[in-house]
């Protein structure tokens, strides 16, 4: 877990702002869910997933409830839908922190932020296209170029079940040649073995059956239509038959946006898919659902690597230097800010030299200086900080003067 300091924190806010612009323009409204929920909500992510078995920050609260910090938001969105029963289609977005007890490394943290969207109540494969395209558009707005979109389908629940059995047989045949961890995973959920990054396992993963051979006609048609829609929008994608994603609620379309500059274990900048059974599992009516979440921390690392979406410190317009005790600066900064200028000042009644140093360091374009002579004559000195000239200005004309200077 880490602190995000200024000016980096300003970039986070702009990041969320760009995301909100993209998704609000497509009819999504913000949903805020609690950071803590009943553990049962998150168990629906899959009781054989790492997220649920190893990474949950769960505890018993003072009222004896077994609760957890959210490891993601989709399960909470499903829970909120089951609870409030909004009229579908329900198109929501969210932004905020999530918690997973993972091994921290570049691009992997125990507290990390996501922005995401979810749509509940629509089965249309063209919605899958919309959702995938919105993520794609967001990366484009950030200026990222090296993002790959990979897609796959997990089929209908029956297809998936038959596929899981085929995988089980395939990996069991590998016997002890499979890593001990993957043999353990195999007993719980054969799909997760496909996520293994261990070198021992790679040859067996490559030789494993493909889900496409288990798709029902309906699943195949749905996926084909999604691809047609992506083609129509000119969004480049790669079909990755071994993409299964790390959470168990997925059905049919799944996808990931991968960055080129991070290690392969952390290269997913975002991902999502359909989760048609989730709302029902949370006590709601049978409801199709689809969405994605994009990792803020990781995407900003990708931005740094690609040299796009840079940190932009707030530009100070005016720095007030008051060597008469500081009360003049109180009033001047107040007036300047009310007039719409970004204004900062020196404190602690420091010397002219020390305050001018601060003024220069602040990046301000202009310094407004008050000394004893100015106080007597009702003026201030306006100084251009890029080495330019300085001149006295009547105090009462300061705001107009600065406005005239700002509009050439
Ligand atoms: P996820 O793949 O677990 O999916 O996470 C989505 C994104 O969150 C990842 O691609 C990554 O960028 C970021 N992320 C995940 N864990 C970490 C971590 N420990 N440190 C930094 N970043 C991380 C979900 O969470 C699903 N809820 C996505 C979804 C929405 N599916 C349907 N709707």
Task: Looking at this protein, list some descriptive labels.
five-stranded mixed beta sheet; 16 helices; 16 strands; 408 residues; elongated
Distance between the termini: 47 Å
Q: How many extended strands?
A: 16
Overall pLDDT? 95
Largest sheet: 8 strands, mixed
Which shape, going by the Cα principal axes? elongated
What is the beta-strand fraction? 15-25%
Range of helix content? 25-40%
Low-confidence stretches: none
| Number of helical regions | 16
Bound molecules: histidyl-adenosine monophosphate
Query: In what order do the strands lie side by side in the largest sheet?
Result: 1-5-6-11-10-9-7-8
- Helix-strand makeup class: alpha+beta
- The value of Rg in angstroms is 28 Å
């Amino acid at each position: 877990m880490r602190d995000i300091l200024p000016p980096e924190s300003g970039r986070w806010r702009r990041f969320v702002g760009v995301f909100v612009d993209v998704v609000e323009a497509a009819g999504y409204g913000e949903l805020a869910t609690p950071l803590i929920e009943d553990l049962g909500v998150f168990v629906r992510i899959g009781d054989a997933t790492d997220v649920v078995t190893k990474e949950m920050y769960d505890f018993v609260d003072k009222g004896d409830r077994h609760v957890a910090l959210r490891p993601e938001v989709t399960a909470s969105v499903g829970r909120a839908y089951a609870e409030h029963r909004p009229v579908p289609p329900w198109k929501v977005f969210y932004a905020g922190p999530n918690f997973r007890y993972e091994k921290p490394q570049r691009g992997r943290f125990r507290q990390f932020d996501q922005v995401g969207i979810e749509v509940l109540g629509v089965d249309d494969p063209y919605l899958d296209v919309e959702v995938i395209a919105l993520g794609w558009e967001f990366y484009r707005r950030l200026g990222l170029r090296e993002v790959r979109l990979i897609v796959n389908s997990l089929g209908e629940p029956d297809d998936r079940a038959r596929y899981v059995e085929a995988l089980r047989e395939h990996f069991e045949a590998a016997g002890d040649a499979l890593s001990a961890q993957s043999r353990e995973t195999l007993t719980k959920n054969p799909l997760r073995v496909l996520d293994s990054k261990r070198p021992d396992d790679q040859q067996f993963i490559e030789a494993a059956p493909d889900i496409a051979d288990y798709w029902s006609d309906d699943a195949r048609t749905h996926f084909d239509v999604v691809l047609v829609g992506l083609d129509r929008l000119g969004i480049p994608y790669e079909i990755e038959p071994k993409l299964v994603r790390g959470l168990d609620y997925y059905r049919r379309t799944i996808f990931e946006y991968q960055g080129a500059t991070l290690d392969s274990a952390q290269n997913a900048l975002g991902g999502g898919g359909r989760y048609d059974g989730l709302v029902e599992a949370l006590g709601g009516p049978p409801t199709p659902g689809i969405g994605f979440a994009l990792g803020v921390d990781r995407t900003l690392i990708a931005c740094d690597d690609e040299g796009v979406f840079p940190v932009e410190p707030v530009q100070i317009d005016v720095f007030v230097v008051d060597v008469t005790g500081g009360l003049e600066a109180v009033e001047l900064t107040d007036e300047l800010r009310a007039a719409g200028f970004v204004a900062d000042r020196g404190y602690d009644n420091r010397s002219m030299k020390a305050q001018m140093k601060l003024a220069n360091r602040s990046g301000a374009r202009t310094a407004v200086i008050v000394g004893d002579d100015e106080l007597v004559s009702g003026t201030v000195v306006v100084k251009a900080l890029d080495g330019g000239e300085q001149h006295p200005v009547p105090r009462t004309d300061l705001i107009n003067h600065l406005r005239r200077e700002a509009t050439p």
